[in-house]
Write a structure and sequence with these properties.
Largest sheet: 7 strands, parallel
Helix content: 40-55%
Number of strands: 7
């Protein structure tokens, strides 16, 4: 993997562990020569992961919509900052640049980015690894909801398998490096009506 996209909060959260995880991820990406792709902001976990990667000698590409350039305070010290016209363009560009995706803790925007990229994987639009860094169990309710989706018949087991979950940065990168996408059918069928 040459580039990894990180989805994360524009806030730092209340626990010091969130900041520590963002710093550890940014530093490890730089150490391994993996370029960071992210939303281009200089605030919250977004700014922390970017700064940690840069401080460790890494390369960072930010992609930010013009409308959020001031709101998310576009990071001016990046290797490259791409300013785009919309959130849709931002997400498509980050997906195009990245060889895989990691979600750190975050809010609605992070959830939305994560689920969109998972949906694209489910539909066979990409076969890149998608992972959660489950810092102090932050994402445990979301993982349980996905497992419930399987048990209630709304998701296939292989679709649940599209999401890697680890609570440790090195373990997460190892899992992503070993990832083999499940075979996903291109058509969705309602088994009841077959």
């Amino acid at each position: 993997m040459k580039r990894l996209c990180v989805f994360c909060g524009s806030r730092a959260g209340v626990r010091p562990a969130y900041r520590a995880a963002a710093e550890a991820l940014g530093a490890l990406l730089a150490e391994r020569g993996i370029e960071l792709v992210y939303g281009g902001g200089n605030v919250g976990l977004m700014g922390i992961v970017a700064d940690a990667c840069l401080a460790a000698g890494g390369r960072v590409v930010g992609v930010i919509p013009r409308a959020l350039l001031e709101w998310e305070v576009g990071h001016e010290g990046l290797t490259r900052l791409e300013v785009v016209d919309s959130m849709h363009t931002r997400k498509a560009r980050m997906a195009e640049l990245a060889d895989g995706f990691i979600a750190l803790p975050g809010g609605l925007g992070t959830f939305e980015e994560l689920f969109e990229i998972l949906t694209w994987a489910q539909l066979g639009f990409h076969s890149k690894p998608v992972a959660l860094l489950n810092v102090e169990g932050y994402y445990q309710p979301l993982v349980q909801m996905m497992e419930r989706g399987v048990s209630e018949g709304f998701m296939k087991t292989e679709n649940r398998g599209l999401l890697l979950v680890e609570d440790d940065v090195p373990a997460l990168l190892r899992a992503m490096g070993a990832y083999h996408p499940p075979t996903v059918g291109k058509r969705i069928r309602d088994e009841k009506h077959l």
